Amino acid sequence: MRRVVVTGMGAITPIGLNVEDFWNSVKAGKHGFGEVTHFDTTEYKVHLAAEVKGFQGKDYMDPKSARRMELFCQYAVAAAKEAMADAGIDMEKEDPFRVGCSIGSGIGSLQVTEREHKKLLEKGPNRINPLMVPLMISNMAAGNVSIQLGLRGKNINVVTACATGTNSIGEAYRSIQCGEVDVMAAGGTEAAITPLGLGGFAALTALSTSNDPNRCSIPFDKERDGFVMGEGAGIVILEELEHAKARGANILAEVVGYGTTADAYHITSPIEDGSGAARAMKNAIEEAGISCEDLTYINAHGTSTHHNDLFETRAIKNLFQDHAKDLRINSTKSMIGHLLGAAGAVEFIVCVKTIQEGFIHQTVGYQVPDEECDLNYVTEGPIEEDVEYALSNSLGFGGHNASILVKKYRG
Q1: Which pTM does this prediction carry?
Q2: Model confidence at 1: pLDDT above 90
């Protein structure tokens, strides 16, 4: 199997419109929660979200292209352009059929769905936008990134709900390992803070009803009552090691393991003993050829829902046994909420930065310990220490589990 490294990263998040600003906000423990501004939430039970602020599609592409993309695609293109620039890839020097794309979205565009349904009801079917379908469908993030950047290799859209970002990066990793491509732009994107999106998740009772921005997304805290919707994109450039070395790339980290399983249990709840997530973590660790004791840090899925945080804690205990208490575990969702299909990709970026800088961020907002969630969730402040391996977990509705393991690049 060929070795796979990370050579570029890009991010659009509620606390920064590029990787540098996002990471600086993470290190400062800054959160992005506030009143929803995209629409009026007066009649809703939920009023807070983590919105992307100050983003303009025309700042990242020509206005005509921006008009032909919904917001989730614009976020993906913006993050992908940053990642490609960070990687220093010149497509004129590459075989475009050896450079591919694995970018997913859990939902696609609810905005266009709502808009065109209103037209259908008020004005009839002949007034529906001819571009409704290509604007709406979730694979268009991958499609638009490939068009904008000239990527003609393998192009896929993984949709596994909240595991989408991690699965997308994992499948890109596999594609390079197996020799299908040399380079992949990979990650996830989401822009689902809409009346239907917020209303749907609220009806499911999955969202926090807190009106306190400092106490709404509080993973592993006993008073947690649901996740907070976020939005944005995370895109990374994965590259075959020898290809990266040949062009003198700056290698940020190495991907060494990927595990993905199903709970086969329930459409929204993880399996109660955490066995599915535990097996995904185990598979990633075994592929890397390390022991559980070699791992010191996990970026948890940590959604701030009762079931997820409890069952993910059980999964970690299930696999790591006595070593579980020695792990540093945090949740980036404590600052940016749940980016759904983009969550795992943005959290992957956090893992790479954690390895690079030896900085494990705090799980922000945590105050009340839960006797059933009794591991070290980095609640007292950030920790500065050397991190050799970082494991990122994602769990999705439908019982999808995905774990990806990143290592400090040693040559």
Answers
A1: 0.98
A2: no
